[in-house]
Design goal:
Layout lengths: L7 H19 L10 H14 L2 H17 L31 H7 L4 H46 L3 H4 L2 E10 L8 H6 L7 H9 L6 E9 L5 E12 L7 E13 L4 E6 L3 H6 L13 E11 L5 E4 L4 H16 L6 H6 L11 H40 L5 E10 L8 E9 L5 E11 L8 E13 L4 E6 L18 E10 L5 E2 L6 H17 L2
Antiparallel strand pairs: 1-2, 2-5, 3-4, 3-6, 6-7, 8-9, 9-12, 10-11, 10-13, 13-14
Helix pairs in contact: 2-3, 3-5, 5-10, 10-12, 12-13
Length: 532
């Protein structure tokens, strides 16, 4: 009854089944085995050997990338090492102890293609995370830029630059203060007692070497509001530079107010000068003649003590504002409605806020102009002093020296230099004493024989319109003793420098020292180089 089992065709079928099973088992893709180190190493080699050359290199790179990123924490994985389409030299087989338990479990039973897929997906995820983090960082940066711009804009919003420009500093000058040791009126006018050490002021003023310079100001107001307090910014600049040596602020109070059309003159010693120019100065101060002072109003205060114009904003903040605006315009930020409403949405072609930029530019131009104005105002002030001095000198020219002769006396015992003058007094004043400067020259000599002062007290006063011959005998041991003897070609030129009237009253005072002439030249030279 079981004879059918021995028929030939079922045996053939069994052989086919066995062959299929054998072939199928031979085509199974190798998988990673992370059970132990030996199996892991063998499985890596098996997976690598069954893959094509390019895929084998990609597998090595993927495995290395997964191990490098395993437990890396906050350190980003360098995905440039995972170049799956680039053939490369085979990498060393990693040790099993380089894998964390979680990575071992993730790799257990994975084929080479699956390992590559896992690493590729991880790299894509990390790239997406990086992009998201960069976008958030740009948004944070943008919000910070907007906050900084708002802070500076809040200052600019109350600037009222036109009002601030209505208060003009017509003159600002550094002078060496001359006053008694117990006179603190200047300090009292400008500072609270708590703000100034009067003992230090007295000590420094007692010594000529440590006297503090003072600031002289002339102000003119074209401001409609009454000014009851004023915050100044003071810059001390070298005479050949626009970069300040020192910058500080001072506050002035007007108890009765300074109103439209009024002018005020102030002279004071800022408390900062004790540190800059006092006996205990931190560094050796420059000579006052080498400094130019720029004074500009910063804030104006009304009777209620509130500022109605001005902003306490300096050059650094203006430069920072421009930098913030440029940086915000150049950034590619995430759009937010809140940012759009506050300052303006940045674009690649338009300004963030043209109003802010215009205000900042106007303020910067005004500050720059104040420097030019200070240099030009001081130069013009010195020219005005020079004109006054020249006007005082003009009457001196009406005291005429009609004849001048130099010779030596004929005494055989002791010869003396003699100067003979014929003068004509057309000054309209009675003259009792004359001072002059004489220059003795000869044709063959480039330099004068003598160039020295002379003075002569008249025995009888010289009345207006009167002419007189004067005979002056200078000291033969002095400069005039160097005049040559027995020469007929000497020429004597006399310049009247000072006249004294009755009661020793100085007449036609001409006071314009050479130091001011040199300072005026320096100011004019720097103004020319700046094109002001």
């Amino acid at each position: 009854m079981f004879t059918w089992l021995w028929r030939p065709w079922p045996v053939f079928l069994i052989l086919i089944i066995v062959l299929i099973i054998t072939l199928t088992s031979g085509c199974t893709k190798p998988q990673l085995d992370t059970t132990n180190a030996e199996r892991f190493r063998a499985s890596v080699m098996a997976v690598r050997d069954k893959l094509p050359a390019d895929a084998s290199a990609a597998f090595d790179a993927a495995l290395s990338a997964l191990i490098a990123g395993d437990g890396a924490g906050d350190e980003p994985l360098n995905d440039t090492s995972l170049q799956l389409n680039q053939p490369r030299q085979r990498l060393p087989i990693p040790a099993l102890d380089q894998l964390s338990p979680a990575l071992r479990q993730q790799l257990q039973g994975r084929t080479g293609r699956e390992v590559i897929a896992i690493a590729t997906k991880g790299a894509e995820q990390r790239a997406a995370n990086r992009q998201r983090a960069e976008a958030l960082a740009r948004e944070r940066e943008r919000r910070q830029l907007l906050d900084d711009i708002r802070t500076i804009r809040a200052k600019l919003s109350g600037l009222e630059l036109e009002t601030l420009q209505g208060l003009t500093v017509t003159r600002a000058q550094l002078v060496l203060e001359e006053r008694a040791e117990d006179d603190t009126s200047l300090v009292r006018d400008w500072f609270d007692v708590s703000d100034f050490n009067r003992d230090q002021a007295s000590a420094t003023e007692a010594d000529d070497k440590s006297r503090l310079p003072a600031i002289e100001l002339e102000l003119t107001s074209q401001v409609r509001n009454g000014i009851y307090a004023l915050l100044f910014e003071v810059e001390l600049l070298p005479i050949d530079s626009t970069e300040p040596w020192r910058r500080f602020q001072i506050k002035q109070r007007f108890s009765r107010g300074l109103f439209y059309g009024q002018s005020a003159t102030r002279r004071f010693v800022p408390k900062q000068f004790a540190e800059l120019f006092g006996a205990d100065a931190v560094e050796t101060p420059p000579d006052l003649g080498s400094l130019v002072m720029v004074v500009r109003p910063v804030r104006l205060f009304g009777a209620d003590g509130q500022a109605f114009a001005g902003a306490d904003i300096n050059d650094a903040e203006l430069a920072r504002l421009q930098m913030l605006i440029n940086k915000l315009n150049q950034s590619v930020a995430i759009q937010t409605p809140e940012a759009d409403q506050s300052v303006g949405q940045p674009t690649k072609t338009s300004a963030v806020d043209e109003a802010i930029a215009a205000e900042a530019k106007a303020l910067g131009a005004w500050r720059d102009a104040s420097i030019a104005r200070a240099f030009k105002a001081e130069a013009e002030g010195i020219r005005a002093e020079q004109r006054v001095a020249e006007a005082a000198r003009e009457p001196l020219s009406r005291f005429l020296v009609e004849q001048a002769r130099f010779h030596w006396s004929e005494s055989q015992i002791h010869r003396k230099p003699i100067i003979e003058l014929r003068v004509h007094n057309n000054t309209g004043e009675t003259i009792s004493w004359c001072h002059c400067r004489g220059q003795l020259t000869s044709p063959e000599r480039d330099r004068p024989w003598v160039d020295a002062p002379l003075e002569h007290r008249l025995r009888d006063n010289l009345a207006p319109g009167e002419k007189r011959d004067l005979r002056i005998v200078p000291n033969w041991l002095g400069p005039w003793g160097g005049g040559p003897k027995d020469r007929k070609d000497l020429k004597l030129e006399i310049e009247i420098t000072r006249l004294v009237g009755q009661g020793r009253k100085p007449l036609f005072v001409y006071d314009f020292p050479e130091e001011k002439t040199a300072r005026l030249r320096a100011l004019e030279a720097f103004i020319a180089t700046q094109g002001w």
